[in-house]
């Protein structure tokens, strides 16, 4: 085989490989679009109902977190 035949065969294999990948990806996109139209979107029930919270425990946690952040930032600034 000479170089011309090898080059032609490699281009044919390149076209076959890239063409098959392109066709498979197009089919995948079409299948996903069809499934998206057939299956209705379900809303999550937790998004509409607020979670019950206890105010004193949450405010204590928030205050503790804020204090820790403030101390961390203060310590970081003094070390710089």
Can you describe what's shown?
By secondary structure, the protein is an all-alpha fold. The chain has one domain (7-38, 54-79). The protein contains 2 helices and no strands. The radius of gyration is 31 Å and the shape is elongated.
Share of helix, binned: over 70%
Query: What number of structural domains do the residues give?
Result: 1
Spatial shape: elongated
Class of secondary structure makeup:
mainly alpha
- Sheet with the most strands, sense and barrel status: none
Mean pLDDT: 87
Return residue spans where pLDDT drops below 50 for at least 5 consecutive residues: none
- Strands, count: 0
> End-to-end distance, in Å?
71 Å
Helix count, per DSSP? 2
H and E order? HH
Describe the oligomeric state of these chains in a short phrase.
Answer: single chain
In what range is the share of β-strand residues? under 5%
Question: What Rg do the Cα atoms give?
Answer: 31 Å
């Amino acid at each position: 085989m000479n170089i011309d035949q090898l080059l032609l065969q490699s281009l044919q294999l390149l076209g076959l490989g890239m063409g098959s990948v392109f066709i498979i990806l197009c089919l995948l996109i079409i299948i996903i679009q069809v499934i998206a139209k057939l299956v209705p979107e379900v809303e999550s029930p937790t998004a509409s109902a607020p979670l019950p919270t206890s105010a004193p425990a949450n405010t204590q946690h928030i205050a503790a977190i804020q204090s820790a952040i403030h101390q961390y930032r203060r310590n970081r600034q003094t070390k710089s």
